[in-house]
Design a protein that fits this description.
Rossmann fold, alpha/beta, 172 residues
Length: 172
């Protein structure tokens, strides 16, 4: 078993694609460290097997959770995540949905913290243009913010920098 469990939900394939780019970047510095799982086929026990967890979720419509994460959310209520380190990444469209950019990251981050996990992998809000976000805490997002609509050219570099930071924060 790898040292990091990465769990994503994706309707269009964009979040899945970013999940595998993240795995690729981790493999460059920690070969075999990441197991990738689709949350739609995962159980709470699958997540709890790992002490280091990455969650990937897009924000849909006006601040809604992706379908598979929406279905999984009630399962968190029975999960003891004390001692777990969680890093999140989210996909969103800051130009089209600037009033709820990355909201799904904030919703899931709040839930995992409520269940006892520590959230790592904060990401600066500078370089983005948005009005509001449930994922914003001061000058940081509660995870990596990816905009494959308006800033595709920045995705790879952001992922590379975030992976290095999360590796250090996870103590790997």
């Amino acid at each position: 078993m790898a040292s990091i469990g990465l769990f994503y939900g994706s309707n269009t394939g964009n979040t899945e694609n970013v999940a595998y780019i993240l795995k690729e970047e981790f493999d460059k510095i920690l070969p075999g460290a990441v197991d990738v799982h689709n949350i739609g086929r995962s159980t709470p026990e699958d997540i709890l097997r790992y002490n280091n967890i990455i969650i990937g979720i897009p924000t849909w419509n006006t601040g809604e959770l992706q379908d598979d994460w929406d279905a999984f959310m009630p399962k968190f209520n029975s999960m003891d995540m004390n001692g777990k380190k969680v890093a999140l990444f989210g996909l969103g469209d800051q130009n089209g949905y600037g009033f709820n950019f990355q909201d799904a990251v904030g919703i899931v981050a709040d839930k995992v913290m409520e269940r006892g996990a520590q959230v790592w992998g904060l990401w600066p809000t500078s370089g983005y243009q948005f009005e509001e976000s449930k994922a914003r805490e001061d000058e940081f997002f509660l995870g990596l913010a990816v905009d494959e609509v308006g800033q595709t050219e920045m995705t790879r570099g952001r992922i590379q920098n975030w992976v290095k930071a999360v590796k250090a924060e996870f103590g790997l």
